[in-house]
Amino acid sequence: MTKGKVDALLGIVFGDEGKGKVVDYFTPRYDVVARFAGGPNAGHTIIFDGKKFVLRSIPSGIFDEGKINIIGNGCVIAPDLFMAEAHELEAAGYELTERLHISRRAHLILPTHRVLDRAYEAAKGKNKVGTTGKGIGPTYSDKAQRVGLRVGDILNNFEEKYRALKARHEQILRDLHFTDYDLTEEEENWLKGIEYMRKFHLTDTEFEINRALAEGKNVLAEGAQGSLLDIDHGTYPYVSSSSTTSGGVCTGLGIAPNTIGHIFGIFKAYSTRVGGGPFPVELFDETGDTLRHIGNEYGAVTGRNRRCGWLDLVALKYAIMINGVTDLVMMKGDVLDGFDTIKVCTAYTKDGVTTTDMPYDTAGWEPVYEDVPGWHTPLTAVREEKDFPKAFADYIAYIEQATGTPIRIVSVGPDREATIIRA
Ligand code: GDP
Ligand code: IMO
Ligand code: MG
User: Fold this and answer.
1) Active-site pick, 16, 142, 153, 230
2) Which residue has a Cα nearest atom 26 of ligand 1?
3) pLDDT digits (tens, 9 = 90+) for 144-181
4) What is the CA(240)–ligand 3 centre distance, in A?
5) Does the pTM of the predicted model rise above 0.70?
6) Among this protein's residues, is 233 annotated catalytic?
């Protein structure tokens, strides 16, 4: 939490690691919280004082009323979903328009981007990515094609630009013979969302962040998705379409690499994945069902079952390398309460070859496991490290030793309070 620096909190596996909870917990130590990638494909859960919120585009620092929250240029934003999310917070008594600032360079998700998302998925058949259906891929594609609409366009001849991009999308949909959509109601609400967004500071957030840093303030960059869903470093093509790794913090906020301080890499004490794509540690047996049930592993955005398995050190070490993780944050240790033995994947094997380096394509690789002892003392009520059961303390030490990276924070329950900082 160095003054004048940007610290990042990055999901380093397949998303849903608990980023929302930890960003909310960290916020009192920072001046600014900023999202740098993704959009409403994210679902970040925050629980405190008996209340639960699931944020999609709005940063998880929003509950600390003195803090500025920024949606950075690397993000994509759906005006209608943003409006619904903001209304929910406003109804709960949070003022937003003064302290939630949106980059003019962030790209807009159009209703037709969501239709295209469905159309492209349908065309892929059994090879579909299993996207969240929020139009993420088509919006980032338009950004790369240099035809996208940006938040700044809302302030400048918007109707004409909107009609042109919508017509382009409709032509693609005709070419794909995809007719299963009706935009009337959705478009009306979306245009209301555009009007609603005008109430906010639509600004050049890169200047705002860099000025804050020059004044000695500190910034927390909130990751979305996870490193294995990164467009470059993830399990392509079963990935999202943004840069979710530490490089994305720079490009997605307009800050220089030498402004980065700590890089917190967050992971669960076991593994999950939602959507399609290879997942070597996936358990199809009762243990997988138990992890899903106890861990409540159902998607925050789509409600889909999350696929579950044991901790994967091959994936973890790769993500630590790619991101330059300085500190680890381990979530959901409590979900492993009650197992006699816990397995940890230490290598992958295929066709007689064994590797500890993440392969280019993880399809067909089988996990190699080591057994470690489990514990039977429930962790959820534990608030101090000295009260950890020995086997849990050993599990932490085992992961630190294997990854060469300290675990600074341990979470043992969904509530803000169930968080332990280690010396
Ligand atoms: P995010 O996308 O990384 O913010 O994570 P999600 O909110 O999608 O998923 C994390 C889920 O785990 C949420 O339902 C949280 O309430 C819950 N959670 C977070 N930390 C813990 C923990 O330490 N133990 C348990 N049991 N649940 C947790
Ligand atoms: P948070 O921020 C988990 C997955 C989808 C799909 C793939 C591509 O809550 O951790 P997309 O809609 O982005 O084109 O889908 O990525 N995915 C996530 N999985 N957590 C997320 O976000 C995700 N965002 C996208 O399930 O497999
Ligand atoms: Mg999530």
Assistant:
1) 16
2) 413
3) 999 999 999 999 999 999 999 999 999 999 999 999 89
4) 13
5) yes
6) no
Three-state DSSP at 268 gives: strand
Q: What is the DSSP string of 188-234?
A: HHHHHHHHHHTTSEEE-HHHHHHHHHHTT--EEEE--S-GGG-TTTS
Residue range 39-88, pLDDT digits in tens: 999 999 999 999 999 999 999 999 999 999 999 999 999 999 999 999 99
Q: Token pair of 48, please?
A: 């405190």
Residues facing 312 on adjacent strands: 345
Q: What secondary structure does DSSP assign to 81-145, as a single string?
A: HHHHHHHHHHHTT---TTTEEEETTSEEPPHHHHHHHHHHHHHHGGG-----SSSHHHHHHHHHH
In ligand 1, the atom with minimum distance to the C-alpha of 46 is: 16
Coil, strand, or helix at residue 184? helix
- Yes or no: say if 225 and 36 are a contact pair by the CB < 8 Å rule: no
Name the residue type at position 336.
L
| Cβ–ligand 1 contact at 59 (below 6 Å) | no
pLDDT beneath 70: ranges in the chain = 1
> Is the separation of the CB atoms in 407 and 20 below 8 Å?
no
